[in-house]
Design a protein that fits this description.
Elements: E1 25-29, H1 33-45, E2 49-53, H2 56-64, E3 70-74, H3 82-90, E4 97-101, H4 106-114, E5 119-122, H5 127-140, E6 148-151, E7 154-157, E8 162-165, E9 168-170, H6 174-185, E10 191-192, H7 193-201, H8 211-222, E11 230-233, E12 237-240
Parallel strand pairs: 1-2, 1-3, 3-4, 4-5
Antiparallel strand pairs: 6-7, 7-8, 8-9, 10-12, 11-12
Helix pairs in contact: 1-5, 2-3, 6-7, 6-8
GO molecular function, one term: transcription cis-regulatory region binding
GO biological process, one term: regulation of DNA-templated transcription
Protein name: Stage 0 sporulation protein A homolog
């Protein structure tokens, strides 16, 4: 049975991304709660999915357990500082990293870059400028897509978190929306169930892999004509067949 959103709420995730990521998810590691709250709020208002960490160990624990498109790291954090966290992340990932710090000397900037940082923003900074820098680095990394996807009578508005067919809004659960966005982000690519499950449900998901089939079925039921472009690839998985 296909679930419906409750209380008029539709969707919770936004921009899709390439390279196997189902959404733009950002990790913020900052021990100052007020600043973390402000930065998180600005990023959420732009449609990003944000995960917060209050110290270096917390940041690494959360990074290891999820897929992130970008990491914001404060240098001066308890338990493990931002430079150490940056170096640890670089051992296994090339995810874009922006360092946030009150240290603004040339030596400090060079030190951050030598530990693997991609950008360096000195405190105090404007949250609006930070959001602009985030967008810029995501675009350079090839992760940020356009604000809309259009194909025939299907439209996905990433900023509105909404799906339309013939200008009629389609009611999807957050997971169904994530799944559709992931398929679209990887259009014309055959995806097996394991790939889809890891990208959309997360690496720590322990449920039945056939939940992918159930959610595909729901998309086909809810979105008129979806069976024409959400294709089943026998013995493998699924493909979103884009029509140019």
């Amino acid at each position: 049975m296909c679930a419906e959103p409750s209380d008029g709420m539709y969707l919770t995730v936004t921009y899709t991304a390439k390279e196997g990521i189902g959404m733009i998810k950002i990790l913020i590691a900052e021990d100052e709660a007020k600043l973390r709250y402000v930065v998180s709020g600005y990023l959420k208002s732009e449609g990003y999915h944000v995960v917060e960490a209050e110290d270096g160990e917390d940041a690494l624990d959360k990074f290891y357990s999820d897929n992130f498109s970008l990491v914001l790291l404060d240098i001066m954090m308890p338990k493990r500082d931002g430079l150490e966290v940056c170096a640890e992340i670089r051992k296994l990932s090339d995810v874009p990293i922006i360092m946030l710090t009150a240290r603004n000397t040339e030596f400090d900037e060079l030190n951050g870059f030598q530990h693997g940082a991609d950008e360096y923003i000195s405190k105090p900074f404007s949250p609006k400028i930070l959001v602009t820098r985030v967008k810029s680095i995501l675009k350079r990394a090839g992760l940020l897509q356009d604000s809309e996807f259009n194909m025939g009578n299907l439209k996905i508005s990433y900023r509105e978190h909404s799906v339309y067919v013939d200008d009629q809004r389609i009611s999807l659960t957050p997971r169904e929306y994530d799944l559709l966005c992931y398929l679209v982000a990887n259009k014309n690519i055959v995806l097996n169930r394991e790939q889809i499950l890891q990208a959309v449900w997360g690496m720590d998901y322990e449920g039945d892999i056939r939940t992918v089939d159930t959610h595909i079925k729901c998309l086909r039921i809810k979105i008129p004509g979806a069976q024409e472009y959400i294709k089943t690839i026998r013995k493998i998985g699924y493909k979103f067949e884009a029509v140019e």
